[in-house]
Amino acid sequence: MSDKVLKIRSLKVIFPTERGIIKAVEGIDFEVSKGECVALVGESGCGKSVSSLAFMKLLTTPPAIIDTRVHEFDGKDISNYTDKQMKEIVGTEMTMIFQDALSALNPVIKVGRQIDEIYIKKLGYSKADAKAASIEILRLVGVPSPAKRYHDYPHQLSGGMRQRALIGMSFASNPKMMIADEPTTALDVTIESQILKLLKDLQRKNGMALVLITHDLSVVKRTADRVYVMYSGKIVEEGPTDQVFNNPRHPYTKGLINSMPKIGKTKEEFTQIPDNVPHPLNKPEGCYFKPRCSNHDPEICKLHMPAFENLSEYRSVRCWNPIEDAGGE
């Protein structure tokens, strides 16, 4: 059996609106293996979160219209799974940590009771066994005084503890794949580091596949084994994290890396990508990145979308004029 936990080919997600068709995701390929951490990165509005929801078939259809050529989870074709079939694996075999822990947790139900539901409804535990397991999972993810915190409401926990509780809920069923959508949003750098270490420790201990959705490249550099760079609904670069950071081949990837603040970097040296991600209803002709790209060919880039081509066994890029190989591969 393949070690691929998730395998997606030609994923498309569109939203028909009164103003036109929003092409949120345009034919992306994505995969993650057992024990691997893969990051999906890009600016806000590039389609990262929509893609992750489509991976788990959590988008409501309609309004979303979703199409894939291949949609496999743990070696099984789930492309035509019904809502009932998906409920059997979502929350147990595949789980998700959402961006805002305070919004993701029910404010009027105690944290421990919310974790209990995973054990009772998904795993068939008794109430007593579920309580014991919930306290243990809170201890495992580093929540202090877990027996006391079990009885707290979400607003009584700090941001870091709420995030740990969410990770505990997602990890309770020992899933084969966990998707973490901006898991360190609104956390200070110390707590962020602790949360990332916790995720990596849990992943390594259980051989879990981890999909990290983020715009923070410093998080990616510290955490991911492999990275997909997404722009305006398309994957524009893919490869091992160290190779992508040391030798970016797409101008967008290089722009993201150069815009990362660095210790000792003066204000005059700080760079940023001009303008913004195009509105999904008003994408430019040809290469979507062309209006922001300093490396474009004024003719071909304006007229045609480049294909996603292999540069080597492990590297792929979507660009008519990729950045010269710096020898980092």
Supply the number of helical segments: 12
Radius of gyration: 21 Å
Query: How are helices and strands ordered from N to C?
Result: EEEHEEEHEHHHHHEHEHEEHHHEE
The major sheet is characterized as: 8 strands, mixed
Low-confidence stretches: none
Provide the residue-averaged pLDDT: 90
Give the termini distance in whole angstroms: 29 Å
Strand content: 15-25%
Looking at the chains present, what oligomeric state does this protein adopt?
single chain
Question: What overall geometry do the principal axes of the alpha carbons give?
Answer: globular
Number of strands: 13
Give me the side-by-side strand order of the main sheet.
Answer: 7-8-9-3-10-11-13-12
Briefly characterize the structure.
The protein has about 325 residues and is of the alpha/beta class.
